Amino acid sequence: MKELELITQARSHREQIAVRTELAKHTYADLLVRSEILAATLLDEIDDLAEARIAFLIPAGFEYVATQWAVWRAGGVTVPLCLSAAEPELEYTLSDCQASQLVVASAYKEKVEALCEKLSVSLLVIEEINEVAQKVLPGITPDRAAMILYTSGTTSNPKGVVATHANIQAQIESLSEAWEWSPNDRIPLFLPLHHIHGIINICSCALWVGATIEPFPHFDLEKILGRVRTGAYTVFMAVPTIYVKLIKAIESMPEDERSATVGGFSKMRLMVSGSAALPASIHEKWTALTGQKLLERYGMTELGMALSNPYHGERRPGAVGVALPKVDVRLKSEQGELITVEDEPGEIQVRGPAVFHEYWNRPQITEESFDEGWFRTGDMAVIESGYFRIMGRLSIDIIKSGGYKLSGLEIEAALLQHEAISECAVIGVPDETWGEMVVVAAVLEAGVDLEIDSLREWCRDRLSTYKIPKRLLVVEALPRNAMGKVTKMVLRELF
């Protein structure tokens, strides 16, 4: 029988703790036993799921991992669902992937019962699955489909990204090598487990090497900081908004509590930020506060991680480093020319064993997404002193104005350094003279007024490096937290 390498790896760490919570500790042996029971239940009277799609709605923890492993060991394809998804979203995903079974935690049973009946999807409640008769599990080859993750669908309905076992293994091995994962590592898991960040970067990498994950149902600031103060973790991964929350929390702590918290963070061997651009100001503030230099990386659902600042070496604020092991990355201009010099923007294209297999049931889109074997990410970047710097999505974040390609993300990052600006969004609007005009929507810090003249002067100094044309428009300063309620925006000339 051909066994998945993931399972073979787990057998070599049988007695180590795989999943730890406040209430229990589960070893790798526990995961192997539980996943075998679940796999036998999923198979029932057949010998192989033959890549049937098995969806699940289970919080982070032992049962989540056991279900994931069970689907794979039974020959199925995992489709992890968002715990907070509304019924129309769940219906779309279950219908699109043609799921045959849905495994849920009991807390979600009522939420999906009627939907499963409507779609003729078998519903299994994880707490109700106990010992079953032993069953010989099928052999699984690396080229078989393993997982479907749904993209955000910013421009259309979400697409199912199909990854094979070989793709997943390549993603894990690349990060394990680059970030030097070891069985001694301990990491909290509070990111969503229907996204690549939580599934691969944290959960899969940790369990591949025999490390320990500590799952939380959500980002519980007090509990996580309490564990940090005890020295519970060696690795920490989060998104930029969480680091902002951590900074505010630490700065407001009494001195003794603050000292213990900072000490817990400073002793970790690795701290990573991803899934969104990290403002350089936050990067620098975190280093000043904890002594830790955050490692930024770049990836996406279709390929796992492709670029990373080095584990050993300079971790440059605002940059995402260089290509990871076993990953090829290139830049290509809109005219179709390969970019071989620095400081010239182009689309990021990636190839290698980690790149996904196909978009589920979308052969034409799959074909259009590749350029002679290179996956077209749709993201624009530039190389500066050897490191890639992301400028944004070609379709959303890049503003073509006055002959320049401007990064809305970069302008946002610069504006967020202004002491009066709490939140901002930068977009391009059509303009006869410039092609597109840069427009900024700004939300102010509580109790702070914004003088347009002073902001104009500040922008002249700070934004000059972004080659912004002579005119920039800014939305009238809005009341705090009112951006979502504004129906009419007054634009004022800034330059």
Give an overview of the whole structure.
With 495 residues, this protein is an alpha/beta fold. Among the domains are: 5-140, Rossmann fold; 398-493, ANL, C-terminal domain (GMP Synthetase, Chain A, domain 3). Helix content is 31%, strand content 27%. The protein is built from 14 helices and 27 strands. The strands form 8 sheets. Strands 11-12-13-14-15 form a 5-stranded mixed sheet. Strands 16, 17, 19, 20 and 21 form a 5-stranded antiparallel sheet that branches. It has a 4-stranded parallel sheet with strand order 4-3-5-6, sandwiched between helices. Strand 24 (421-431) and strand 25 form a beta hairpin. Helix 8 (221-229) packs across helix 10 and helix 9 (240-251) crosses helix 11. The longest helix is centred in the first third of the chain and has 16 residues, at 28-43. It is globular, with a radius of gyration of 24 Å. It starts with a helix and ends with a strand. Mean pLDDT is 87; it is low at 480-495.
